Amino acid sequence: MGKPITTQKRGKGSQTFRSPSFKFKGEAKILPHKENALVMDLVHCRGHSAPLAQLYYDDGEIGYSIASEGLMVGDQVFFGDEAELKNGNVLPLKSIPEGVIVCNIELRPNDGGKLVRSSGASARVVSKAKDGVVLQLPSKKQKKFHPNCKAMIGVVAGGGRVDKPFLKAGNKFYAAKARNKYWPVVSASAMNAVAHPFGNKRTLRKSKAKPAPKNAPPGRKVGAVRARKTGRGR
Fold first, then answer.
1. Residue-number span of the structural domain to which 101 is assigned
2. How far is C-alpha 43 from the geometric centre of its chain's CA atoms?
3. Which one, of 108, 150, 161, 156, lies nearest residue 125 by Cα?
4. Burial level of 100, CB count in 10 A (0-12/13-18/19+)?
5. What is the DSSP code (8-state) at residue 185?
């Protein structure tokens, strides 16, 4: 009897693939209806690649946000239409001029920020219209956003992180372990026949990839999916 393949193991929902969110500092997001905050500390969180800014809001609430480059302890962060175009400040996209670099962008108004949050990432405001604001994302793709979506001015802090090589498999192991990422990832064709449908003998040519059976169960239906029918359509 074969072993469950990785897709089936993930679906089981075991601790192996579950993110250790209870060890994270907290949720880093833009809180709605805030006016200004004080940067109390810059902290490291194993769940984020970028440093987090611990903010003390004017109403006494304490929260975390993605830190932009140049933000320091003791700085004041302002929110809203009237905020200055300064690193760390949060404004709606309709109030940000074209050509300004932004990060930590909301996908929908008041969702807290979903895009351009990894260390060193940034986007640029390309054009503005009544029905939306067009931004160029780090992938060079252009996307239109609702004018009331908020974004942080500046580049996400911690740039250059990916420039440093891991050098050792041990370093990669601990980096993946911090977020409980599945590592190392083994090619299906490199496995034994007992571990995966594509597994084969211990030969140079190991792979035996072929279309999955029509009645294959979830997890077994991998690789080339069988055609529904053959022949010319009439």
1. 18-157
2. 19
3. 150
4. middle
5. P
| Backbone φ and ψ of 56, nearest 5° | -110, 105
The CATH number assigned to the domain holding 34 equals 2.30.30.30
Q: In whole angstroms, what is the distance from residue 42 CA to residue 75 CA?
A: 11
Residue 110 burial (CB count, 10 A) = 13
Pairing type for strands 133-136 and 36-43 reads unpaired
Is residue 152 in some structural domain? yes
- Tens of pLDDT along the chain (234 residues) come to 678 888 888 888 888 888 888 999 999 999 999 999 999 999 999 999 999 999 999 999 999 999 999 999 999 999 999 999 999 999 999 999 999 999 999 999 999 999 999 999 999 999 998 889 999 999 999 999 999 999 999 999 999 998 999 999 999 999 999 888 889 999 888 888 888 888 888 777 767 778 888 888 877 788 877 777 767 766
Residue 185 belongs to some domain of the structure: no
Q: Given CA atoms 130, 132, 138, 139 in this order, what sign does their dihedral have?
A: negative
**Number of structural domains found in the chain:** 1
The two tokens of residue 202 are: 């211990």
Sign of CA dihedral 191, 195, 198, 200: positive
Residue 43, amino acid: V
3-state secondary structure of 37: strand
Q: Tell me if 6 is assigned to some domain.
A: no
Q: For residue 177, what are the CA distances in angstroms to 9, 23, 58, 65, 181?
A: 18, 12, 37, 23, 6
Per-residue tokens: 77: 């962060």
Whether 84 is covered by a domain: the verdict is yes
Rounded distance, CA 80 to CA 194, Å? 59
